[in-house]
UniProtKB/TrEMBL annotation:
This is Uncharacterized protein.
Length: 531
């Protein structure tokens, strides 16, 4: 019964049983008590650590609005971002978008039934948004440039009713500018900080996307990966990251490194939230037509949410490679000992572990991996120049322009703290020549005769690797991977466990990752959220 209903009932009863003055005093006291009780009931919902389904339930029960949700995150960003440097910009239109979502929900608009409707999301600052936000990859060279349109994934997010809260920080140029710069550094936001242990590498390039989610500065985020940049920061910051099959999500409007390896994927606190985001962004995009059309065949009818199954580990065949770099644990005894308990959990929950797997032709495969760097330099120059020419306005129109810009402003404070050696190497390339073609051929061989052979011959559903150790194998072949929080070391630093599979195996990987997550529930928020 509501407070007003209880008071009315009491008042009716009191007319026949209480002296007037005493009655009035008691009614007044009861009103205060009941109002206080109702306020407490309404405030029981906590935004911090809330999942998408929990937030949607709170919306429906009128315990939360999108506006109050966005206001909460803006406040948290103002409080925490000066410490963690995870957000480059907040969308000045975010509150307006939230109010519109609230109105759509009140009107029961069709869009309001989507899972991401009214949910704030941060997108990595190399993903274009056609709004009042900049898209800079953390570089001053791109500041005030104007993109022609939303990135394909952003367009899908808007269609799903998600609120673009802002741009997440990153390792500048997705960590493809300087070999000396630490993970999480860019000229605009400076150094991102791991919220669990400040001295621990936040890892990869989607650092801001992972840190902002881990610290509850946003509900969910998007990252990008060329090699490890979703999986590694997710592992290092105790969150879930999905690196999709190449082309499952559009790369159109993303500042590129390599169309052959670039992917866009969710970084979230739970597997469930990551799957909600994946469902929203996967699919065909005319501006990335070749890759997205090819990968669209992998999307299951009805989407990915149905693969959040209890008991998802039952019957799964999981491979463990202990002795070989790129494929697993690299004979790292300390890491192997740390993960033995995880192997036991996987077995206990119904998975079959195919342990001590041999990569029989490893000596022939291992030298082929050097081709990745050779190919990436040439691909980066070609892809970046094409991206820059599409911009409506920009101070730079080629990689050579970017290099010149950085050299011109190198001595200015807050502009350039690290050399641009990777840019310089890329600028030396001249298209896909004989050397690059050989490198690409070798990478295809490494994928076919390495990972694919290992998976198929052993009939594996997934390969299990620690941290993001398997990222290069997944990257060069365009294969998917999911990392889930695996625990914390003796210093409190997080680490993840990664499940990688063949192209299009996201449904199976989701079942495995969700099964492990539900069996362990290892994630805990960083210490800042305890204060």
């Amino acid at each position: 019964m509501s407070a007003s209903g209880a008071v009315a009932l009491l008042y009716y009863h009191s007319l026949f049983s209480r002296p007037p003055l005493k009655m009035i005093a008691q009614i007044f006291l009861l009103i205060l008590l009941l109002q206080s009780s109702d306020a407490k009931e309404g405030s029981q919902f906590s935004i911090r650590e809330a999942t998408i389904p929990e937030i949607q339930t709170a919306f429906k029960q009128n315990k939360l609005t999108s506006k109050s949700l966005v206001e909460f995150y803006i406040h948290e960003i103002q409080k925490l971002n000066p410490i963690y440097r995870a957000v480059i910009e907040v969308n000045p239109d975010a509150l307006h978008e939230a109010q519109r979502a609230d109105e759509e929900r009140k009107a029961n608009a069709p869009k309001s039934r989507f899972g991401l409707h009214g949910i704030p999301i941060l997108v990595k600052d190399n993903i274009a948004t056609k709004d009042n936000l900049n898209t800079t990859a953390g570089s001053y060279a791109f500041l005030k440039s104007v993109v022609p349109r939303d990135a394909g994934v952003v367009e899908k997010l808007r269609e799903s009713g998600a609120i673009i809260l802002g741009k997440a920080s990153l390792s500048e140029w997705a960590h493809f500018r300087s070999s000396n710069a630490p993970s999480g550094w860019n000229a605009r936001a400076k150094q991102a900080v791991n919220p669990y242990v400040a001295t621990v590498d936040p890892c990869g390039s989607s650092t801001g996307s992972a840190i902002s989610v881990a610290t509850n500065m946003v509900t969910v985020s998007l990252g990008t990966e060329t090699d490890g940049s979703i999986l590694c920061p997710s592992s290092a910051n105790s969150v879930v990251g999905i690196k999709p099959t190449l082309g499952l999500t559009s790369r159109a409007g993303v500042i590129p490194i390599s169309p052959r390896q670039d992917t866009v994927g969710p970084i979230c606190r739970t597997v469930t939230d990551a799957v909600y985001v994946l469902d929203a962004i996967a699919g065909f995009d005319k501006n990335d037509a070749v890759a997205t059309k090819k990968a669209s065949k992998y999307i299951p009818e009805g989407g990915y949410l149905k693969h959040l199954k209890s008991g998802g580990l039952k019957g799964k065949r999981l491979g463990i490679v202990r002795a070989y770099p790129y494929f697993g644990f690299d004979n790292d005894i300390e890491t192997l000992n740390k993960f033995e308990k995880h192997f036991m959990i996987l077995r206990k929950n119904g998975a079959t572990l195919i342990d001590n797997l041999e990569v029989t032709n490893y000596d022939d495969i291992q030298p082929l991996f050097i081709g990745e760097v050779i190919a990436l330099f040439a691909e980066f120059k070609i892809a970046l120049n094409a991206y820059l020419k599409e911009l409506v306005t920009s101070p730079v129109r080629s990689l050579a322009d970017v290099i010149a810009f950085n050299e011109k402003f190198a001595n200015l404070e807050k502009i350039d703290d690290y050399p641009q050696d990777l840019f310089l190497e890329a600028e030396k390339t001249n298209g896909i020549g004989k050397i690059e073609k050989e490198a690409l051929k070798n990478l295809t061989k490494a994928s076919k005769n390495g990972f694919e052979k290992l998976m198929k011959e052993n009939k594996l559903d997934a390969l299990v690797t620690p941290y993001s150790y398997g990222s290069t194998v997944l990257a060069i072949g365009g294969y998917p991977g999911i990392t889930v929080p695996g625990g914390y070391d003796e210093n409190g630093a997080p680490y993840g466990i990664c499940f990688g599979g063949l192209k299009g195996s996201e449904p199976t990987l989701i079942e495995i990752a969700y099964g492990f997550e539900q069996a362990t529930k290892l994630r805990k928020p960083p210490p800042i959220n305890d204060h």
